[in-house]
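User: Please predict structures.

Assistant: First:
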Amino acid sequence: MKQNLRIGVFLIGIVALVSACGNGNKTPKAPPPMTIVETSRLEELTQKVEKEGLKPLSKGDVPIFLKKGEEAYFVASDVELFEEKATRKSTRGEGVGLSIRLIKGVSLHPGLFQSHPVIEREMTKVADGKLVVTSKRIVFVGTERNISADYKKILGVTPYATGFEVEREGKKARELIKTSDPVTPLVYVTYIINHQADE
């Protein structure tokens, strides 16, 4: 009876270890997609901008120095910058071996157990700041980080309900700009890039 109890506890420990290792590679949840209301607003604003164009802001309302011939169209203050970073948080194990019969009806499969770190990637907040959309670039002016991305270097923009992700040429890590109004800068940036491509 004691032998069966020891074997049961040992087997439970193995199951718990395997479960812990198997759950160590969970990927972080992606930001929520745009809702129907936000998508509808995006379409309405896109039609308005296509019809009326963009109106430049006064230089006194822009928190950056503009380049020659550059105009600013949008400024947001409640902005957070997130960047994808790799971290080592857990280990995963693998093992193989021979089957050993312990008692009737119960077999154990011991063997070499090798563990290695599991690399997890998650979006980490790196700075608070302001977002500026100009005729030539997207600018983030932050407490710990500044970004100036020319439109010619932008490969793609992915919208979310809480912000948008910018994919830049030569930048491997993903960057997420979180703001309370992701629709307006997204429409403006798309409009500017499309019109520059037509020129």
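Second:
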Amino acid sequence: MTVRAERSLISVVVKATDEPCELEACLASVRSLAEEIVVFVSDPSRAAADTATQYGANVYLHLWAYYRLDELDYLGFLHCQGEYILRFDSEERMTPALSSKLRQIAQSGRYAGARFARRNKYFDGWLDSGGWMESDQLRFFRSDAWDRTWNCAAHSQVPVDGPILDLKPTDKYHSLHLNYERVEDYVPRSLIKYAQEDALARYLSGDRYSTAKLTWRFFLDARS
């Protein structure tokens, strides 16, 4: 008689660079939440892969130069066996309050997904105002509810079919996102790579540059 293996409840998908220390801190923070961890690494030296293996992760090597970052998330979702999927970054850290709440959501099965905030750290400070602490990250969802036709546009949200729970950051349901520690990290990633990907996605969607629109956005950001 064949015994059917029990399905994992929560799978976590992580993209990792060549910094194994950063990845280890990330995986340590989600270890108590995840029954399955899927890691995509871009480090040919295998330092990050070895770190992920120590945490029992399923590791896949991909050269990021040939993929957009969101495409790697997409590939990771396809490898997941869990009923729920958490989309996570290697520079992100899970908090106990959020971990407990996501576990409750997965166990209840009531929601197709959950939005939560990421508390962002730039250099030596946390960005807790100016629209940065918003519950706008749909990064936890049921594996049978996400749209496989998602176009993987830069920094886009995964389309999910079904009721979504918004977790208010005032309840401390947020992750910690350690964005940049040095200016030399910020410039090539944010001002070059991410800016190019975002500009291309906007252009393909029909959006065009406008001085009036740029000026109006400046005043909106200043007011927030």
